[in-house]
Amino acid sequence: MAALSLAVRRRVAQGGKEGGADIGLGAAGGRLLETVPWRPALGGVDSIVEARLGPPVPGGGGVFLDLPGGLQAMLKREAEAPPLPSQGSRMLVQVRASAHGDKQCRVARSIIIRGRAATLSIAADGTATVDGPPAEADLLRRRWQAAEPGRAPVVLVHPAEQLIAAHAEEPLEVLVDDGPLATRLRTWAEAIGAAAEVRHLPTGDPLVEAGLAEPWAELAAPLVALPGGGRLAIEPTAALVAIDVDSAADARGPAAVNRAAAAEIPRQLRLRHLAGRVVIDFIGAGQGRAGGLGGALKTLEKGLADDPARPHLAGRTRLGLVELTRPRRHPPLHPRGETP
């Protein structure tokens, strides 16, 4: 039996249009380890798109871009980069962060695609350079040669393929309800030498089959139970993400509850894909009491260090609140007002 399960559930957006996929990686017992809200309509992360250059940004900091699907982005000027083409011209860019709410996609001129051990770089004229093991490098090269970025965004390495690559040496069961994607994932696993078994589920829910549907849905709830009886209240707003730590039924005291909260908060931010400014109200932090905050901050910092998004822990405010920032890539797993 595989130690890990990867579930890829096709998502249908409003109007019956293809809405990407819900992707969850879990361990035995149904514990979620990673989630990916794959939303190509919002600008799929790492996808390659052909953008049309719009007018310059006031102040000369860059130019506005029109992307496929009615999306927009701002391309910042880089001091050592070649001059930008004229307004109305088209150029290839890579999406680094999906759109969300009133926030535009974030894109870059440098296009680099990484697999398990191979790397593909694409020049401004579309020429690709690939380095790495022959089988994997050849697959990436063939995918790019068959791509038509002028017609649709190009996804050379699907998010599910990224997770297969990250766990290539571990027994991994992959459950997919999309037949063509299942075929693609098998080809990828073979090319990179991954110990993954891909199963196509024509009917049924891959998240349910993997035992991940319930923990996935729980990530939409504001309250999170902590070991010992404490809890977190997580409230994303338009300006920031507010997190309150509450002792609830935990009688061990503020220090223990705060440390338990500090251990869970990085995981919740990562699984929920919450980004931007995050403000945490630990127990007793704003009442002149230490509340075990020294140990909690060390625990929080350690957990944040394992996050690929590389959050920045800013420290405490005068009111005792703890602030951090987390870069945005994917949209939130459960946007405000959306039910799972």
Automatic annotation (TrEMBL):
One term of GO molecular function: metal ion binding
GO BP terms, alphabetized: rRNA processing
InterPro entries on file: RNA-bd_AU-1/RNase_E/G (IPR019307), RNase_E/G (IPR004659)
Pfam families: RNase_E_G (PF10150)
Cofactor annotation: Mg(2+)
One cellular component (GO) term of this entry: cytoplasm
Domain RNA-binding protein AU-1/Ribonuclease E/G: 168-328
Record keyword Metal-binding present: yes
Keyword Magnesium: yes
Record keywords, A-Z: Endonuclease, Hydrolase, Magnesium, Metal-binding, Nuclease, RNA-binding
Xref: PANTHER family: RIBONUCLEASE, RIBONUCLEASE E_G-LIKE PROTEIN, CHLOROPLASTIC
Protein's name according to its UniProt entry: Ribonuclease, Rne/Rng family
Organism: Roseospirillum parvum
